[in-house]
Amino acid sequence: MTHTSVNASHDASGDDRTLRGSLGTGSIVLMVVAAAAPLTVISGLVPLGISGGNGAGFPMTFAVTTGVLLLFAVGFTAMSRYIPGTGAFYLYVGHGLGRGAGVGSAMLALVSYSTVQLAVYGYLGPAMSSLITSYGGPEVPWWIFSLASLALVAVLGFRHIELSGKVLGILLIAEVGIVVVLDAFIIADGGPEGPSTAMFSPSDIFSGSPGVALVFALAGYIGFESTAIFRDEAKDPARTIPRATYAALILIGGFYALSSWAVVTAWGDKGAVDIASTDPDGMLITTATDFAGTVTAHLIQILLVSSLFAAVLSLHNVLARYIFVLSNTGVLPGAGGRTHRVHGSPHIASVVQSCCALVLLGACIVIGLDPVTQIFAWFAGVATVGIVALMLLTCLAVLVFFHRTKVDQRLWHTKLAPSLGLVGLIGFAIAIAGNLPLLLGGNVLAVVMTGVLVLAFVGGFLYARRRKQVSFELPS
After folding, report:
1. What is its main location (predicted)?
2. 321-337 pLDDT per residue, tens
3. φ, ψ of residue 23 in degrees (nearest 5)
């Protein structure tokens, strides 16, 4: 078996194959939280969770989801100290469950992250078009804005990672800050019924369709594990990566729970369900107008666009680094594993990712898919299914790895927390499976898109078994 080191500084031709950077905990957290697009979640997913899920009890769904993912993160970060290099979920699956499962998970991850990136591009175009027309500008086709955004992401992704980090940091602080300001106005006012207590009431939490609520809540956490992808570009990764993972989860979960509770409080328990059902797209803007004024509402509308852009930029960085590592380990052609001599970025992998995104988005444009009800809804749904499957495999891999190697004897970190996380993730999977037709737009589409995920995993598994030179220091 031939081993290809991802950390080697140069290959035989003299090409640099080492990612370079000095990202601290804060920079990594910013990129991870930006990928979650927090303003987009509050504006888009929260109304859907309230109207189609468990109503005024929806904020507690974020708290439950955060708790399960924190349990998962305990084992994930404990294992990270024994897994060198960049690679996120698939590298952990490979070390725990074998090379075939690892490469299969890598292919599943590429498909899942590519689909969620495509979904956000689909939402970004109409959001920009609506913003322009709301200020008296001309009506421009949504796809013009989506393609322009893709071009800008391609330029930023080609350059040094710290440039992307600075851009994401500015955008993220602005979008989180404006929602926190709105939360403060709502809390100070108290709403028509006073602070909502529905999120603490079991009858409200389990009302309606909790499974649907869970799907919408979980979609807001996609990308949190990407902290590990930036390992080779981080300062002191043994400390930075675990800290960034916990910090990202706590910040995301706390922000979602607080802000969704504030939105419910603003309307009252029944009023929140009514407005979320009749005007989900305008719920947040209307709330901002009523409680914080038109200026705040306009700022939120502008920052929603920047939130979506920050998400696609962060997802681009994640996908480029997946391609980079897979190119250095024999799964993909080796050219994608080179780094830029000046920027230290995976520039070829970045270009490949941009081209793939262009092909996918271009196909959707040519076919004539609706950017929101089809591109965004369908592909965000299939991405959620894929990411939950990856987390399940990773959690199982953590348990198997520590049981087999005995390198860490801490009961909580290696057995209890991962086991509890696995139980929670199985519950998530059952809830998602029961709502797949709703999530993906019908039974036939649910079968087709789930089949694509299965084929990606099986294809990667068989490829690794047939191609012995594929290795990222994984057991056979």
Report:
1. membrane
2. 888 888 887 788 777 66
3. -70, 130
